[in-house]
Amino acid sequence: MGRVVKAQRVGDEIEPMVKHVTQEAINLFEGSAGRSTPSQFTDEATARETLGTEGTVASGRMTLSFALEMLRRHFGGDVFNHNGMVDLRFLRPVRPGDTITFAGTISDVSREAGGRKVSVDIKLTNQRGDTAVVGAGSAVVPNAFFPPEE
Amino acid sequence: MPEVDDRILLDWDALQVGETFEKYEYVLTQDMIDTYRKGVMDPEAAFPTISHKVDIKQFNAKYRDDGSVNARCAFYCYNPPIAGKKLTVRAWVADKYVRRGKNYTVTEAVSVDEDGRLIDRVITHELKQPSEVGKKWGG
Lengths: 150, 139
Fold this sequence. Notes:
The complex is a heterodimer. Chain A is an alpha+beta fold.
């Protein structure tokens, strides 16, 4: 991905992102690390026994991967993949069948050596309107990535 | 013959903050990357290392307990990993705390590839009474 030049102003909303979570996707996420044993993510009986839930849930790290994608799209991979971060609190489970929407709002822009640290508040809501995840992310954007008038 | 589980039963009170786990090494394959990208529905996803859960992997390799739930997780990107490279992970207990009567552990891990490139850092807060969340979530 090439250089993403854009203004970064406190209060600006970044492009939201929607994901439809399926059990197949959860299984791929878990299987990508070579795990094959049943877990609360892949097996309903294990989820019932471990969590007391009716069914499986998506791993928090899968949800975190989605948040990384939203911020990478905003900042560009050249920036975010080298100094980006995300910190999320998981309030409610994301379950197979859920359609989840990530929203981000720029909360702070501060000067750093060679650029500006742009912080983003992150919120995830499900199709029922419940807030499932809150948190924040950031990246240090080089000065060259801002429009000339910035 | 069933395998013997020789892990230590977790005594949360005795758990030492700062305890470092054994070094963990693995080769990140292109197949792992491709499968991860399908799972997260993002063909440009750059950090398939997330799904390896390397901090709690090392914790769980040493301790057994009643399971856990990820309550909070932070991930820091430094350099996307490259397929075929061996990754070395150092993990440790970064903190532990009690909130609303429930025990949490905080584990942290840093991954570096065979060329010495810093890949990522992950910090995970886990609730150690997972059945409590099922009640909270309403099943």
